[in-house]
Amino acid sequence: MLKILGKPTSINVRKVLWTCAELNLPYQLEAWGDGELATDAPQFLALNPNKMVPVLVDDATVLWESNTICRYLCAEYGDGVLLPAAPRRRALVEQWMDWQATELNTAWRYAFMALVRRSAAHADERQVAASCASWNRLLGILDQRVATTGAFVAADDFTVADIVLGLSINRWLMTPLERPAYAALAAYYQRLSARAGFARFCANGMP
């Protein structure tokens, strides 16, 4: 059975859990991270020297980085359901996953730490405002994309890219900041709400 190491409140762990739900994959979850087992323990560091969750253990395969884990699960167990095998279609899915992990995550980090985590190290109001503005701007790009497709981010079919982006939208909606009224994005998020795992792992009261 798959083993997933990470606390179930973590946004990156929830990506993996939602992916497992979509693929009907059984797993064993071990709670590691803040408030749980310490990720600087030797047995955890042997799996991931970065001290970060999630970690996936699948027999002799050990993986970290949440988007990589999601891609692996889809490729190994999904039979093309969430991640197309055709190179061009797959690249489009991975493009949006990489955008989420780099551009979008970088934009929201300061604002989220200030407004949700109340981090004393993130109290510069100008940087908070800049982070919020960048966050809103990038979600405007996603709004334009789903307005064009009229369905999901890669095209007509739901893919693993929609899982990682759905969690990012949830974080945006649950952060106390001024947001533009993105109609296409709201309709897209509503479409995601029909998916297996959405209520449990995305719209579950956790940013």
From TrEMBL:
CDD domains: GST_N_2. Coiled coil: none annotated. GO terms for molecular function: transferase activity. Pfam families: GST_C (PF00043), GST_N_2 (PF13409). Residues 86-207 form the GST C-terminal domain. Keywords: Transferase. Signal peptide: none annotated. InterPro entries: Glutathione-S-Trfase_C-like, Glutathione-S-Trfase_C_sf, Glutathione_S-Trfase, Glutathione_S-Trfase_N, GST_C, Thioredoxin-like_sf. Residues 1-81 form the GST N-terminal domain. Belongs to the GST superfamily. PANTHER family: DISULFIDE-BOND OXIDOREDUCTASE YFCG (PTHR44051:SF19), GLUTATHIONE S-TRANSFERASE-RELATED (PTHR44051). This is Glutathione S-transferase. It comes from Massilia eurypsychrophila. The lineage of its organism: Bacteria, Pseudomonadati, Pseudomonadota, Betaproteobacteria, Burkholderiales.
